[in-house]
Design a protein that fits this description.
Blueprint (H helix, E strand, L loop, with lengths): L45 H6 L6 E6 L5 H6 L6 H7 L6 H14 E11 L1 H6 L2 H5 L4 E10 L13 E9 L16 E3 L12 H11 L5 E4 L6 H9 L2 E4 L5 H10 L2
Helix pairs in contact: 7-8
Protein backbone atom coordinates (compact mmCIF):
# COMPACT_ATOMS: atom_id res chain seq x y z
CA UNK A 1 0.00 0.00 0.00
CA UNK A 2 1.34 3.41 -0.93
CA UNK A 3 1.79 5.43 2.27
CA UNK A 4 1.53 8.64 0.26
CA UNK A 5 -2.09 7.99 -0.71
CA UNK A 6 -4.63 10.07 1.24
CA UNK A 7 -6.99 8.14 3.48
CA UNK A 8 -10.36 7.28 2.02
CA UNK A 9 -13.12 9.70 3.00
CA UNK A 10 -16.24 8.19 4.50
CA UNK A 11 -19.29 8.19 2.26
CA UNK A 12 -21.25 11.41 2.53
CA UNK A 13 -24.80 11.11 3.71
CA UNK A 14 -27.30 12.06 1.00
CA UNK A 15 -28.56 15.58 1.41
CA UNK A 16 -32.18 15.61 2.51
CA UNK A 17 -34.66 17.20 0.14
CA UNK A 18 -35.94 20.68 0.85
CA UNK A 19 -39.35 19.41 -0.26
CA UNK A 20 -41.59 17.48 2.10
CA UNK A 21 -42.84 14.11 0.87
CA UNK A 22 -45.73 13.97 3.28
CA UNK A 23 -48.12 16.32 5.01
CA UNK A 24 -47.81 16.17 8.78
CA UNK A 25 -50.74 18.41 9.74
CA UNK A 26 -53.99 16.63 10.58
CA UNK A 27 -57.28 18.50 10.62
CA UNK A 28 -59.37 18.12 13.78
CA UNK A 29 -62.84 16.63 13.41
CA UNK A 30 -65.20 19.22 11.97
CA UNK A 31 -68.22 20.19 14.04
CA UNK A 32 -70.83 21.60 11.68
CA UNK A 33 -72.65 24.65 13.12
CA UNK A 34 -76.44 24.45 13.31
CA UNK A 35 -78.14 25.60 10.14
CA UNK A 36 -75.20 25.03 7.79
CA UNK A 37 -74.65 22.25 5.25
CA UNK A 38 -71.41 20.65 4.15
CA UNK A 39 -70.60 20.51 0.42
CA UNK A 40 -73.46 22.87 -0.42
CA UNK A 41 -74.53 26.51 -0.59
CA UNK A 42 -75.26 28.44 2.59
CA UNK A 43 -76.75 31.91 2.55
CA UNK A 44 -75.21 33.90 5.42
CA UNK A 45 -73.05 36.85 6.38
CA UNK A 46 -69.46 35.64 6.06
CA UNK A 47 -68.11 37.07 9.30
CA UNK A 48 -71.05 35.65 11.27
CA UNK A 49 -70.49 32.31 9.55
CA UNK A 50 -66.81 32.26 10.53
CA UNK A 51 -67.63 33.23 14.12
CA UNK A 52 -69.80 30.11 14.40
CA UNK A 53 -66.87 27.80 13.58
CA UNK A 54 -64.49 26.21 16.05
CA UNK A 55 -61.12 28.01 16.30
CA UNK A 56 -57.93 26.57 14.78
CA UNK A 57 -59.86 23.85 12.97
CA UNK A 58 -59.33 24.32 9.22
CA UNK A 59 -56.24 23.90 7.01
CA UNK A 60 -57.21 26.22 4.15
CA UNK A 61 -59.53 29.10 3.32
CA UNK A 62 -60.19 31.05 0.14
CA UNK A 63 -61.32 34.67 0.29
CA UNK A 64 -62.34 36.76 -2.72
CA UNK A 65 -63.36 40.18 -1.34
CA UNK A 66 -66.27 41.91 -3.02
CA UNK A 67 -64.63 45.23 -3.85
CA UNK A 68 -64.14 47.25 -7.00
CA UNK A 69 -60.66 48.63 -6.37
CA UNK A 70 -59.86 49.45 -9.98
CA UNK A 71 -63.29 50.92 -10.77
CA UNK A 72 -63.87 52.89 -7.57
CA UNK A 73 -60.36 54.09 -6.79
CA UNK A 74 -59.15 54.93 -10.29
CA UNK A 75 -62.55 56.09 -11.57
CA UNK A 76 -62.38 54.44 -14.97
CA UNK A 77 -66.12 54.83 -15.46
CA UNK A 78 -66.22 52.12 -18.09
CA UNK A 79 -68.25 49.38 -16.45
CA UNK A 80 -69.66 47.13 -19.11
CA UNK A 81 -72.68 44.87 -19.07
CA UNK A 82 -70.63 42.05 -17.51
CA UNK A 83 -69.97 44.24 -14.44
CA UNK A 84 -73.53 45.51 -13.83
CA UNK A 85 -74.66 42.60 -11.65
CA UNK A 86 -71.47 42.78 -9.64
CA UNK A 87 -71.78 46.55 -9.21
CA UNK A 88 -75.14 46.31 -7.41
CA UNK A 89 -73.86 43.79 -4.85
CA UNK A 90 -72.89 44.95 -1.35
CA UNK A 91 -69.31 46.19 -1.56
CA UNK A 92 -66.80 45.47 1.21
CA UNK A 93 -64.99 48.46 2.65
CA UNK A 94 -61.52 48.09 4.15
CA UNK A 95 -62.87 47.57 7.69
CA UNK A 96 -65.13 44.75 6.49
CA UNK A 97 -62.28 43.04 4.66
CA UNK A 98 -60.13 43.29 7.77
CA UNK A 99 -62.95 41.78 9.87
CA UNK A 100 -63.10 38.82 7.47
CA UNK A 101 -59.34 38.28 7.63
CA UNK A 102 -59.27 38.47 11.44
CA UNK A 103 -62.07 35.88 11.55
CA UNK A 104 -60.22 33.65 9.07
CA UNK A 105 -57.06 33.93 11.17
CA UNK A 106 -59.04 32.63 14.16
CA UNK A 107 -60.40 29.51 12.42
CA UNK A 108 -57.25 28.46 10.52
CA UNK A 109 -55.08 25.73 12.00
CA UNK A 110 -51.50 26.64 12.93
CA UNK A 111 -49.52 26.69 9.65
CA UNK A 112 -52.83 26.80 7.73
CA UNK A 113 -53.17 28.81 4.53
CA UNK A 114 -55.33 31.67 3.30
CA UNK A 115 -55.61 32.08 -0.48
CA UNK A 116 -56.59 35.70 -0.97
CA UNK A 117 -57.76 36.89 -4.38
CA UNK A 118 -56.54 40.44 -4.90
CA UNK A 119 -56.81 42.97 -7.72
CA UNK A 120 -54.01 44.95 -9.32
CA UNK A 121 -54.82 48.16 -7.46
CA UNK A 122 -54.49 46.61 -4.00
CA UNK A 123 -51.48 44.56 -5.05
CA UNK A 124 -49.60 47.67 -6.16
CA UNK A 125 -50.66 49.95 -3.30
CA UNK A 126 -50.13 47.34 -0.59
CA UNK A 127 -52.49 45.83 1.97
CA UNK A 128 -50.22 44.12 4.52
CA UNK A 129 -50.46 46.81 7.20
CA UNK A 130 -54.09 47.62 6.39
CA UNK A 131 -55.51 44.10 6.40
CA UNK A 132 -53.09 41.75 8.22
CA UNK A 133 -51.66 43.84 11.05
CA UNK A 134 -52.36 42.19 14.39
CA UNK A 135 -53.06 38.76 12.87
CA UNK A 136 -50.74 35.75 12.71
CA UNK A 137 -50.99 35.66 8.91
CA UNK A 138 -47.97 36.44 6.75
CA UNK A 139 -47.53 36.58 2.98
CA UNK A 140 -45.48 33.62 1.75
CA UNK A 141 -46.15 33.53 -2.01
CA UNK A 142 -48.12 34.92 -4.94
CA UNK A 143 -49.69 33.22 -7.96
CA UNK A 144 -50.60 35.23 -11.05
CA UNK A 145 -53.64 33.87 -12.87
CA UNK A 146 -53.40 34.59 -16.60
CA UNK A 147 -57.04 34.57 -17.71
CA UNK A 148 -56.24 34.08 -21.41
CA UNK A 149 -58.39 37.04 -22.43
CA UNK A 150 -58.07 40.81 -22.33
CA UNK A 151 -60.21 42.79 -19.89
CA UNK A 152 -60.70 46.47 -19.15
CA UNK A 153 -58.01 49.01 -18.38
CA UNK A 154 -57.38 52.72 -18.78
CA UNK A 155 -53.71 52.22 -19.73
CA UNK A 156 -52.74 48.54 -19.84
CA UNK A 157 -55.59 46.08 -20.31
CA UNK A 158 -56.05 43.53 -17.57
CA UNK A 159 -55.33 39.92 -18.46
CA UNK A 160 -54.47 38.65 -14.99
CA UNK A 161 -55.64 38.39 -11.42
CA UNK A 162 -53.58 37.56 -8.37
CA UNK A 163 -53.85 34.98 -5.61
CA UNK A 164 -51.85 36.03 -2.55
CA UNK A 165 -50.78 33.07 -0.42
CA UNK A 166 -50.70 33.70 3.32
CA UNK A 167 -49.79 31.28 6.07
CA UNK A 168 -50.69 31.31 9.73
CA UNK A 169 -47.69 30.99 12.02
CA UNK A 170 -45.58 28.98 12.47
CA UNK A 171 -44.39 29.50 8.90
CA UNK A 172 -43.15 26.31 7.28
CA UNK A 173 -43.46 24.56 3.95
CA UNK A 174 -41.89 21.16 4.62
CA UNK A 175 -44.46 18.81 6.04
CA UNK A 176 -47.23 21.25 5.14
CA UNK A 177 -47.11 22.05 1.40
CA UNK A 178 -47.23 18.95 -0.82
CA UNK A 179 -47.40 20.09 -4.45
CA UNK A 180 -44.10 21.35 -5.88
CA UNK A 181 -45.07 21.60 -9.54
CA UNK A 182 -47.21 24.76 -9.39
CA UNK A 183 -45.94 27.63 -11.58
CA UNK A 184 -46.25 31.16 -10.21
CA UNK A 185 -47.97 32.18 -13.47
CA UNK A 186 -50.98 29.95 -14.16
CA UNK A 187 -52.87 30.08 -17.47
CA UNK A 188 -56.50 28.98 -17.37
CA UNK A 189 -59.66 30.33 -18.92
CA UNK A 190 -62.24 31.69 -16.52
CA UNK A 191 -65.19 29.33 -15.91
CA UNK A 192 -67.54 32.04 -17.19
CA UNK A 193 -67.59 35.70 -18.21
CA UNK A 194 -68.98 36.67 -14.80
CA UNK A 195 -66.71 39.12 -13.00
CA UNK A 196 -66.50 37.05 -9.81
CA UNK A 197 -65.64 33.55 -11.05
CA UNK A 198 -62.25 32.01 -10.35
CA UNK A 199 -60.30 29.17 -12.03
CA UNK A 200 -61.35 25.67 -11.00
CA UNK A 201 -58.07 23.90 -11.72
CA UNK A 202 -55.77 26.44 -10.06
CA UNK A 203 -57.89 26.37 -6.92
CA UNK A 204 -58.04 22.55 -7.04
CA UNK A 205 -54.24 22.39 -7.25
CA UNK A 206 -53.77 24.81 -4.34
CA UNK A 207 -56.24 22.80 -2.28
CA UNK A 208 -54.29 19.60 -2.99
CA UNK A 209 -51.07 21.35 -1.94
CA UNK A 210 -52.18 22.13 1.61
CA UNK A 211 -54.82 19.56 2.59
CA UNK A 212 -55.38 15.83 2.91
CA UNK A 213 -58.09 14.04 0.96
CA UNK A 214 -61.30 14.39 2.95
CA UNK A 215 -60.26 17.64 4.67
CA UNK A 216 -62.66 20.59 4.71
CA UNK A 217 -61.89 23.85 2.85
CA UNK A 218 -63.53 27.17 3.75
CA UNK A 219 -64.87 30.04 1.65
CA UNK A 220 -66.86 32.69 3.57
CA UNK A 221 -67.63 34.83 0.50
CA UNK A 222 -68.27 32.08 -2.01
CA UNK A 223 -69.74 34.11 -4.89
CA UNK A 224 -70.32 31.65 -7.72
CA UNK A 225 -69.04 28.77 -5.55
CA UNK A 226 -66.07 27.88 -7.74
CA UNK A 227 -64.20 26.76 -4.60
CA UNK A 228 -67.02 24.27 -3.94
CA UNK A 229 -66.42 22.70 -7.35
CA UNK A 230 -62.63 22.86 -6.96
CA UNK A 231 -62.84 21.10 -3.60
CA UNK A 232 -65.09 18.41 -5.10
CA UNK A 233 -62.55 17.79 -7.87
CA UNK A 234 -59.79 17.48 -5.28
CA UNK A 235 -61.73 15.01 -3.13
CA UNK A 236 -62.12 17.49 -0.28
CA UNK A 237 -65.14 18.80 1.57
CA UNK A 238 -66.36 22.38 1.28
CA UNK A 239 -67.89 24.63 3.91
CA UNK A 240 -68.82 28.14 2.87
CA UNK A 241 -71.48 30.76 2.37
CA UNK A 242 -72.41 33.89 0.49
CA UNK A 243 -74.67 36.79 1.39
CA UNK A 244 -76.19 36.95 -2.09
CA UNK A 245 -79.67 35.69 -2.85
CA UNK A 246 -80.15 32.61 -5.01
CA UNK A 247 -82.29 34.52 -7.51
CA UNK A 248 -79.36 36.85 -8.28
CA UNK A 249 -77.09 33.86 -8.88
CA UNK A 250 -79.61 32.42 -11.31
CA UNK A 251 -79.94 35.79 -13.05
CA UNK A 252 -76.18 36.01 -13.52
CA UNK A 253 -75.95 32.52 -14.98
CA UNK A 254 -78.71 33.25 -17.50
CA UNK A 255 -76.71 36.23 -18.78
CA UNK A 256 -73.55 34.20 -19.29
CA UNK A 257 -72.85 33.33 -22.92
Amino acid sequence: MNDSMPPLKPDKKPRSSVFGKERLLVQPEVTLPDGYVLDGRNRADGVEFLSALEPAGYPACFFDPQYRGVMDRQKYGNEGSRQKDRAVLPQMDEDTIRAFIEAIDRVLMPSGHLFLWIDKYHLCTGVETLWFSGTSLQVVDLVTWHKMRIGMGYRTRRASEYCMVLQKTPLRAKGVWLRHDIPDVWSEKAPSMSGHTKPYELQRTLIEAVTHEGDTVLDPAAGDYTVLESARRAGRHFLGCDIRADDLLVKQRKRQP
